[in-house]
Design a protein that fits this description.
Distance between the termini: 24 Å
Protein name: Thioredoxin reductase (NADPH)
Order of helices and strands: EHEHEEEEEEHEHEHEEEEEEHEH
Shape: elongated
CATH class of the largest domain: Alpha Beta
Structural class: alpha/beta
InterPro entries: FAD/NAD-bd_sf, FAD/NAD-binding_dom, Ferredoxin-NADP_redctase_2, Pyr_nucl-diS_OxRdtase_2_AS
CATH topology of the largest domain: FAD/NAD(P)-binding domain
Keywords: Disulfide bond, FAD, Flavoprotein, Oxidoreductase, Redox-active center
GO molecular function, one term: oxidoreductase activity, acting on a sulfur group of donors, NAD(P) as acceptor
CATH architecture of the largest domain: 3-Layer(bba) Sandwich
Pfam family, one: Pyr_redox_2
CATH superfamily of the largest domain: FAD/NAD(P)-binding domain
Length: about 300
């Protein structure tokens, strides 16, 4: 069975950074991801707040980070971790995947998150038929067409701007009276003349073979209104992937996120967590910082 000093589960920005730092410390390390490296970061259409780049897409930055990571550690993409078993040996953990099994002294959980759903009628029925959670994946198909973007955070406004640039006729819908996104993004929405509907929730997504409209509820008057649209893009937050954390006995907070200390340690010895699976700010640069901290702290654990 292959043995490693550190196994990092998840190859998003945090996991890749942890791999870079761990490898440069002289340890033997493995990153495993059930998908392609980058996670949800691959979907970011454009970033203007990542240090060192005026503008860069998530996919472009992922590829740069991946190239750097594989110089410093092993990377296994498209391999799903099914179980982690704690042992009393020097290699404290056995990691079982759908392809192989590995042993490790340290585990870093970088399992990330997935798109939160609206959980309304028609959402599942029209997934891939007008309902999407990824503007960079599907936006091209909606050039020149009417779409609604649901959400009020940074991601929702970034994707609304991206879709608008593709030539889609975008309407931004948010359940509150004001957006939660950065002022810069809100100013851009106004500058581009993107239509907004505030204090409204999507109650149903309707259509025949494809999406044709959304049913909106005015949260102030309870009035219902049907809005024609060819597509519904949803960006209303994320659900942390904590199956493996729960399996290991890691403590979670009320929202289901992993609780960590300033060294990224969980309540389980030699188990760390970083990125979107943890409590804290959901930002690319934060995940990278946490990856560096976790890898450095893990190295100190190995040395002791």
């Amino acid at each position: 069975m292959n043995q490693y000093d550190i196994i990092i589960i998840g190859a998003g920005p945090g996991g890749l950074t942890a791999g870079i730092y761990a490898g440069r410390q002289g340890t033997k390390n493995l990153i495993i991801d059930k998908d392609l490296a980058g996670g949800l970061g691959r979907e970011v259409p454009e970033m203007e707040n990542y240090p060192g780049f005026d503008k860069i897409s998530g996919l472009e930055l992922v590829e740069k980070m991946k190239e750097q990571a594989i110089k410093n550690c092993d990377l296994h993409e498209m391999e799903n971790v099914e179980e982690i078993i704690r042992t009393d040996d020097e290699y404290r953990f056995t990691v079982k995947t759908d392809k192989d099994a590995y042993q490790s002294k340290i585990i870093i959980l970088a399992t990330g998150s997935s798109h939160r759903q609206l959980n309304v009628k028609g959402e599942e029925e029209f997934r891939g038929k007008g309902v999407s959670y990824c503007a960079t994946c599907d936006g091209f198909f909606f050039a020149g067409r009417d779409i609604v973007m649901v959400g009020g955070g940074n991601s929702a406004l970034q994707e609304a701007l991206y879709l608008n640039n593709l030539g889609a006729n975008v309407t931004l819908i948010h359940r509150r009276g004001e957006f939660r996104a950065q002022k810069h993004l809100q100013d851009m929405i106004k500058k581009e003349g993107i239509k907004t509907i505030l204090n409204a929730t999507v109650e149903e997504i309707k259509g025949d073979m494809l999406v044709e409209s959304v049913l909106l509820k005015d949260n102030e008057t309870n009035e219902m209104k049907e809005v024609p649209t060819n597509g519904v893009f949803i960006s209303v937050g994320y659900m942390p992937h904590t199956k493996l954390a729960y399996q290991l006995g890691v403590t979670l907070d009320e929202s289901g996120h992993v609780i960590i200390d300033k060294s990224q340690k969980t309540n389980i010895d030699y188990v760390y967590a970083i990125g979107d699976v943890c409590i804290g700010l959901k930002q690319w640069v934060v995940a990278c910082g946490e990856g560096a901290v976790a890898a450095t702290s893990a190295f100190e654990d190995i040395q002791n």
